[in-house]
User: Fold this.
Amino acid sequence: MRPRLGLPDLGVGVGLRVPHYRHVLEQRPSVDFFEVISENFMVDGGKPLYHLKAVLESYPVVQHGVSMSIGAPTPPEEQYLTALRQLVQQTKTPWLSDHFCWCGVPGANLHDLLPLPYTEEVIRRVSERAKRIQDFLGVRLALENTSSYMAFTASTMPEWEFISRICEAADIGLMFDVNNVYVSAYNHGFDPYEFVRNVPHDRIVQIHLAGHTNLGKYIVDTHSGPVIDPVWDLYRETIELTGSVSTLIEWDDQIPEFPLLAAEAAKAKALRTSAALTRERRLAGEHVPRTPHPEGPPPISPAALAEGRGWAQGGPRDGIALDGDEA
Assistant:
């Protein structure tokens, strides 16, 4: 396997969220790294940058964005990319990630991560933009597979082929969201293990894990609650194929006390270690039986988005008063 684009394995981290600021800055808990939502800190000053600077004194920080809209009809605005580059220079993030998606059209930002049609035209468009953006930012760009609730009839290939070809053509990294694989597999009725097996494992620079909300006919990627067992199984399979990769627990809705979040990170770290050892034993020629897993979810027709959809990636914004938190 090729080196993982020369990027370090940071261990297992968690998202930096406002409700945890006081605990993090006063207790300095043991955390391998924090991930921040870039757009929350692309400001001229004030509390967001004060807290970010304090965290940077003790922890590595990686940036994850939600507004690049790389697949939109028009390319990302220069003003947005310039502000993003300034933040990269402050955090010294080893890579920067966003999503395979579009967020709107000129004059109308829908503030969501909307899926793309999986076509040759979109591969060319996103690949060319990703190359230019990576050069402009001066840091490795990684794009994330999104969760989805609808499919385009214009698509001519599966999602795993679409994202793999863009990563290779643009020479960028893959932010691999294992929970999103499970959510989309459930909603669209494909085998999540086929997805895991068919992405470029040497380009996975970070993994996301999260909880979700199962509404029966479909699942919504709410980043709420603990990671469920089938997603842990997919994560184990991913690590056995790719080796140890920086991993992050996302929890953005009904955010728990920090110790519960830390416990999820500890669970990920233990499973990551075990799966990486399994991989090493197999590479050494030892026969290690694979862990049995379902062949995939039953076919389920994708449903329309529910009225109660609760997307709140990044949690509450800095400066919003929280009960019992004056940080």
Summary: The longest helix spans residues 258-283.
